[in-house]
Amino acid sequence: MASESEYRTGLFALGIELDGEGHHPAAWHRAGHEPDRPLHPQTVRTRVQAAENAGFTFATFDDALNPGPGPGGRLDATTRAAFVAATTSTLGLVPVSAATYAEPFHLSSQLASLDYASRGRAGWLVVDEPGAARAWGATARETPAAIRRERIDAVEVARRLWDSWEDDAVIRDYAAGKFLDRDKLHYIDFIGETFSVKGPAIVPRPPQGQVVVFGYGAAGTEGIDVALVSGTTLPEVREAIENARVGGVSRVLVDIDIALDTPAAERRTDLGPGSAGRLAFSGRHAALTALLTELAPIADGVRLHPAVIDEDLPVLARYVLPALLRAGLAHRPVPGSTLRANLGLARPANRYVKELAR
To answer: What is the pLDDT of residues 27-36, one digit of tens each?
Structure first.
């Protein structure tokens, strides 16, 4: 595995959302497979491998306990990411998982296990899902302040648990019969408003030290490494980037809805109106390349939301990413590199080791 001291800065990260058939609610009309295939493991694997072969830095997998507007269902995002971990070698795998009502101890364990399964390529897109109280059998968090507080606490607990094992806590000295140095495991002793966690974790410290934490917008930058921002116009996007940087987040990426090359009239007839809220691009691949080149000096990367994955991903792989790679704007991740390294993030020191050294 590449040394974390060799992490690179100044790179333009390229991410893609691979949930369902695409960001458009009617994308299933144009999917390139039979109607019974959306939940088939091979569909997930094929798309993830296509994204990796194209040179994407990471892929995200959306999720929600409440059903969405489209037909069909989805498998748990962390399960999907874990399923493809062993069949990929360079692509970062970033499942969406809500902090609201979840048990952060179990959540941190799942994400640490994903980091091991992917050999250091795991991320976590933390979101709020206040409407899922009934699914958890929990008391609803009714105010924005309570929802925000629980998200911040969940991220903090996960980070403490990832640090609760020192990097060399596992000994594996079979001859001496020693397998663990108990002095290098630490209680985290967290007490919050809605839960408390003593620790330590049940999974050793992840290969990256800390799983990369993604979050939405400037308002949700507490405790995250990467902010995903957007706006319906370029001036709004620029303002969102600035707000996130003022919030102290390490990396800022722009969310963009895309619909490539298929004539706009054909898409409108077949799909109808799309989503709102994100910067939207519809047109030829060369124009998208120009837009990303324009964003490169002000953002640390993008996450693309294809309108129809089976139509847009091949165009991205054939035209857009090769153009960005040739221009030196982006770089293809290499086997053995971590998601942190490919995002230009250093491997963090263990907080408990630092405290003991004082």
So the answer is: 655 666 666 6
